[in-house]
Amino acid sequence: MNITLKRTDEQVELVKAMASRNRDVAYAAQVALAEFIGPVLAEVINNAPTISNLFTSLQFNADDNPSIPLDLYHDIFDEDYIKVYSQSVAGGLPTNYVQPTAAELKFTTYSLDSAVSFDRKYASRSRLDVVGKTFTRVAQEVLLKQERTSANLLFTAAANASTGTSGVTAANRHIFRTAQNERFLLDDLNKLFTKAKRINASFVGGTPSGARRGVTDLLVSPEVVESIRAMAYNPVNTKAPNGAAPHNQTDGITLTDNVRSQIFSQSGLTEFYGVSIMEVLEMGVGKRFNTVFDTVAGTTEYLDHGSTTASSAFDGATEQVIIGLDRSRDALVRAIAVDSDSGSEFNLVADDQFSSRQQRIGYYGSLEEGRMVLDNRAIVGLIM
Prior knowledge:
This protein has about 375 residues and is of the alpha+beta class. It is built from eight helices and 17 strands. The chain folds into two domains: about 10-160 and about 335-375, putative capsid protein of prophage fold; about 165-330 and about 375-384, no CATH class. Helix 2 (about 25-45) runs parallel beside helix 4 (about 130-160). Mean pLDDT is about 80; it is low at about 75-80.
């Protein structure tokens, strides 16, 4: 990410004016730049390829007391209550609220902010590169906070997600183990599709009309992407032609030439089998988001592959989680406040705390948001 100011005459003069000895002129120039850059930063933050932007934005007036009518966002299955995961503070432990389906959910919002400053001499010398880097830092800091907050919420909801009316067991949890250790195979993705279909029955328990919900996105570690690339030259079957487990080289079956060629030609791998692949460096054994899942999962047991009874707890030291999402439904919601004056989601203002002796120019930026998982049936996963 890099925010660059074009070196036009107008912008050069505006940046120079920020260093004027006339305090009124300098402050007016700083305010003018803030009004110009604020919407740009909002656009950059909202379009960054991050976990936080997997959430659907729901705008509300900054002076409003927002709420969500849950019955319009949730199909009714066999129960009169649904689970909503939310946070009261940025990065806090998500809380599971059990709400009546006809209720209005009053959600809590929090502020994410950043404050930066630079030496006044850079403005007087028209160093647009320094000014641009300053605003880049603002966007990066807000994105980092959004990413941590979103991951805490998403992985907590995934760890506890279950569907069924016969009580919470390992069999009706949304996460199960892969077929082989240290390998992600087509069979695993195929079974994940089936799992997503089964937990997304219609409100009467039958086949839903319209779009068939399933898995649209996968959040994976670099090791999982490596395993997908390896399908271009390794066997992928989990059964021999006679139905038994493969046990020799003659039992090995590869992908079709067409699919293998696609994997060869796109080593970056943004899509596989119609599912968008998001490679997340914080996922994987020993990494931050894997540790979050390990912590919130605790002693929760998940099915071993191919079993309907055998299960065990997640081991963060040797296992990693893969998250599948259905973004065709509005299950992940980000409520964002919009300034009534500027109409922008991100509020950037000139920071007037610096005196003339300090010779610094500062900016303060913030946004107000709240994140929720309204329906954890949109979340499935694998343990590898």
